Amino acid sequence: MTHSAPVDCEMRVALPGRLEAVEEFFAEFRRKSQALRDRVDGFAAELLVREALTNAVVHGCHGDARKQVRCCLRLKNHRLLIAVEDDGDGFDWRSAARHPAAFADCSGRGMEILRKYANHVRYNQRGNGVAMVKRLR
pTM above 0.90? Predict the structure, then answer.
């Protein structure tokens, strides 16, 4: 019989697909997450969540408040698990991974940001969801 460690902290939210909802979420996130930010690199954790949520709103939902972005943050076993999924059509993440943004590009750096700051990144088949792991300090 396998026993898993209990979840230290979990936060689930469904947001309308607009940038204002992301900002409202982060105001609440900062109020509720001091214990989380004390245990992980707070900058990296917030950057990962913000980048994933912003990409879901802008590229997945196209700013349409009728579409939703779902986010789950879970602190467990000395790791922060981040999962974000949107109601959009998804994107070809395999192709995007083979063609990173050029230095002068104004967009297209999201995947590189996730790879740089997360310990593990995985996209779903459709390309409308991403799951990341950030190890605790």
Answer: no
Q: How far apart are CA 109 and CA 92, in angstroms?
A: 15
As a whole number, the mean pLDDT across the chain is: 88
Q: Domain segments of the chain: what residues?
A: 9-135
Across the chain, where does the E strand assignment appear?
9-16, 68-76, 79-86, 120-123, 129-135
Distance CA 34, CA 73 (A): 14
At a CB cut-off of 8 Å and minimum separation 6, what does 40 contact? 75, 80, 134, 136, 137
Least Cα distance to 130 among 74, 49, 66, 61 occurs for 49
9-135 folds as Heat Shock Protein 90 (3.30.565)
